[in-house]
């Protein structure tokens, strides 16, 4: 949608446009309240600024909308379609999918939440390598990295939604 159109939508509709960028209501509502945006640059700057406020609770809330890496998102809602598109690089390599499945389990046992990575632009092998690297992080380090990836996914989706 065009920025001018987004600026003029009623608040609930404007929030619905942002809903699939990240499942954090506080962020969606603050983004809507800060309209009108003079440019796409201002929109993205505000999105980044607000995303700096995210903590563990926000992160856990957002994870519900992200399927595991290597698992095909089910359903037809927009997040599922976006996830399938973003994760397309994982491809049909059965060995890689199995390795991702095992590494995801190790990760979830260690950190207690699912592994999140900005999948767009990364091959399946690169994501497996990142998963294995990040397994060595301390919980505090890993929350920082994972929040950074959530921010990247959110900005990518925002930039695809409002042009
Ligand atoms: N667990 C995940 O990292 N999921 C995802 N990363 C993306 O970039 N899209 C997803 O669905």
From TrEMBL:
SUPFAM superfamilies, A to Z: UraD-Like (SSF158694)
Pathway: Purine metabolism; urate degradation; (S)-allantoin from urate: step 3/3
Keywords: Decarboxylase, Lyase, Purine metabolism
The protein's name in its UniProt record: 2-oxo-4-hydroxy-4-carboxy-5-ureidoimidazoline decarboxylase
InterPro entries: OHCU_decarboxylase, OHCU_decarboxylase-2, OHCU_decarboxylase_sf
Annotated ranges, domain Oxo-4-hydroxy-4-carboxy-5-ureidoimidazoline decarboxylase: 7-159
Any Pfam family hit: OHCU_decarbox
């Amino acid at each position: 949608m065009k920025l001018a159109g987004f600026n003029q939508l009623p608040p609930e509709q404007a929030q619905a446009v942002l809903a699939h960028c990240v499942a954090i209501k506080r962020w969606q509502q603050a983004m809507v309240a800060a309209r009108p945006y003079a440019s796409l640059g201002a929109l993205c700057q505000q999105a980044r600024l607000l995303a700096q406020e995210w903590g563990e609770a926000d992160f856990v809330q957002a994870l519900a909308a992200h399927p595991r890496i290597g698992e095909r998102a089910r359903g037809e809602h927009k997040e599922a379609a976006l996830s399938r598109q973003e994760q397309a690089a994982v491809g049909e390599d059965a060995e890689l999918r199995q390795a991702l499945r095992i590494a995801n389990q190790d990760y979830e046992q260690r950190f207690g939440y699912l592994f999140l990575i900005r999948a767009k632009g990364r091959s399946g092998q690169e994501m497996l390598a990142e998963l294995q690297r990040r397994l060595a992080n301390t919980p505090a380090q890993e929350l920082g990295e994972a929040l950074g990836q959530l921010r990247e996914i959110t900005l990518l989706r925002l930039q695809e939604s409002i042009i």
